[in-house]
């Protein structure tokens, strides 16, 4: 009787770990992939700043007993449209606009988020991820992967020269909006995983590490995703064996990948 | 618009933040023409280019002949050395067919040997855009522009960022392409010598149209004074060189 109970516990723990690794790896892959564009577009810190925008969205979702990830996606989508619209209509740099949105959201978020949830929102807790979060992550990652691949050529041409891209009929404002929406989505997925304070690291660190080791855009994108997946999977396993929160371990593993990449930098 | 016209610009006005950048510019470009646009810094040359490419808002009319396809070579591009974008990947933004890409690179002066051995043995196609020299990058950009078979090429200062020894190569390449590909060329330049040598017509610009026509008749002392003021001596020097 006792043995059976232990087996069931073991099996469910194992299934849970596999589920967490799957979700974590998808977040790692999609943030690594989008991060490669962000590094090239010199928007490294935008992911970090945007992650704070998720906070009031999560608080409002909690108030209405909704899943926080839904609130995070809605708040980020709203902020991305706001940043994009103001960037098009005024001549303020989008980096500055992101700064305004992020500090405003952080201030509001701290005021309206109940304290226990605030800690979880700031630091994340992958162990609280439920089936719904998992499904949202799987669908979100698929969307990010196909979206990024579809936008890739136009985004990269825009990195070389926006004028050149536009002279070929590329609607850069639409491309930039679609791209920012994908960044918003990846940040929403990451917030549940490692929390608002560390989401920026998921997007940036694998990409910066990969950039040191690669000589073409294709290999850069693949390597960045691979480092994202490896950091997430190893981080979750290491955290479980040490009995600590996975978020910071995932980030520290990707930072060690970055330090290693410096050896390969040519 | 008559059959031999490729581009007709009428009454073009551009205002930024209340400042007039271009005022009432009108000119025509005939098919197979080589038009140089000259003027001092801040004369609005690049703005005019961006207007005819439809990249900036303007008042007035810019009409391209039907069937005109444009290849554009922008002014000086700075691609960081550490951006891992290869020549191959860059050119594939416009053309996925490898044979056509190699053909375009050979047309701009990379011999078929060079495609496979450049930069200490690594292939040009696998080389990062950011580590090319100014002249090489310029030729890759020209290859990018001629992919997709345009019938008009627009060059914004083709030799900016190119060292003096490569300048001549770039212009003779442009004129070779014009002959071989049956292209109309519009280029911005600040070098009068080049304008006399390569352009069939010149548009002198200093916020407004100062002169237009074949260089030897359009550029005179009055127009140069309106363009460059005291720098008119510069003109005499070059005229002397060409007459001599």
UniProtKB/TrEMBL annotation, chain B:
A family per Pfam: ABC_tran
Q: Which domain of life is it from?
A: Bacteria
| Residue ranges of every copy of the ABC transporter domain listed in the record | 7-232
Question: Keyword set for this entry?
Answer: ATP-binding, Nucleotide-binding, Transport
Name one molecular function that GO assigns to this entry: ATP hydrolysis activity
Belongs to which family? Belongs to the ABC transporter superfamily.
Spell out the protein name for this chain: ABC transporter domain-containing protein
**Which species does this protein come from?**
Candidatus Woesebacteria bacterium RIFCSPHIGHO2_12_FULL_41_24
